[in-house]
Write a sequence for this structure.
């Protein structure tokens, strides 16, 4: 009796801490099976689990799980580690004594590490070519995609973009200000992916992008300075207006400011400075007031004249 064993998958990724499931299908009834053995072939054979004709599995590797699903044997390996890398064998023994074997492999599968982008320039601003090189320190079966401002390079349909065979290098030919964009490199495999961005407008070696950026930055600073100066001038105008309004208000009262902190005797006030007492208002002047306004006879006249 000839029988083919079909194993899926023939190679599985050993991702640290991960799980994997191996399935082997066979074309015979379970009643005809005497024994099934899963083994790790690392020098000395290490049995993972075995199935006896009494339908019982014995597990020798923890954590692991073995089971039967119709005409298929299933092995589940959990919490994978570096020791799970290597070659495995599945052996099926029929009651009639025939033995069938198949094998599969566990490959260490490193996740993608944080990628990086390096730049290289060729030529000058008249005809400048720039090459962006994307890489990652770790990662199994790495694949690379490039996008420009969120669009794939292929969709740009531009002859100025050249891609290396392994897609790790993107060359921009005849760079000008229209190329001051964001370039994204995505590195991925079947189990992980990482991205890194390159903003040409912020890269100092792209002189045409840098000049444009500096000009925008300087214009912004100038605008802020002009705004501050206008605000200060407006505040000064308002302050001057308030001062002039208060000054005019004081002059409108017609009352000079008199220093009342000094008492000057009436007899020291000259006649011209004395208040005149008239009867224009129709009221008689109080004699006591008149007397107070007359010169003091005890004061010599020449003193008054001298004072005047």
């Amino acid at each position: 009796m000839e029988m083919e064993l079909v194993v899926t998958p023939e190679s599985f990724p050993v991702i640290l801490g991960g799980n994997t499931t191996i399935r082997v299908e066979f074309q015979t009834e379970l009643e005809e099976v005497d024994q099934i053995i899963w083994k790790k072939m690392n020098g000395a054979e290490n049995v993972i689990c075995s199935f006896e004709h009494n339908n019982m599995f014995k597990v020798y590797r923890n954590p692991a799980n073995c089971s039967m699903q119709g005409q298929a044997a299933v092995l589940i390996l959990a919490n994978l580690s570096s020791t799970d890398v290597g070659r495995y064998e599945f052996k099926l023994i029929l009651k009639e004594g025939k033995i069938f074997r198949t094998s599969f492999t566990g490959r260490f599968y490193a996740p993608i590490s944080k990628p990086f982008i390096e730049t290289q320039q060729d030529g000058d601003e008249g005809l400048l070519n720039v090459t962006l090189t994307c890489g990652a320190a770790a990662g199994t079966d790495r694949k690379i995609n490039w996008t420009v401002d969120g669009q794939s390079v292929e969709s740009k349909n531009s002859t100025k973009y050249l891609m290396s065979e392994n897609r790790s290098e993107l060359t921009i030919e005849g760079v000008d200000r229209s190329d001051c964009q964001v370039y994204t490199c995505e590195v991925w495999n079947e189990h992980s992916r990482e991205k890194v961005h390159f903003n040409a407008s912020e890269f100092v070696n792209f002189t045409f992008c840098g000049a444009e950026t500096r000009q925008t930055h300087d214009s912004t600073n100038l605008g802020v300075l002009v705004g501050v100066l206008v605000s200060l001038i407006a505040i000064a105008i308002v302050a001057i207006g308030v001062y002039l309004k208060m000054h005019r208000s004081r002059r409108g009262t017609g009352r000079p400011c008199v220093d009342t902190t000094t008492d000057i005797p009436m007899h020291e006030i000259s006649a011209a400075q004395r208040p005149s007492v008239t009867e224009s208002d129709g009221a008689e002047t109080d004699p006591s007031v008149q007397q107070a306004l007359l010169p003091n006879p005890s004061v010599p006249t020449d003193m008054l004249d001298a004072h005047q």
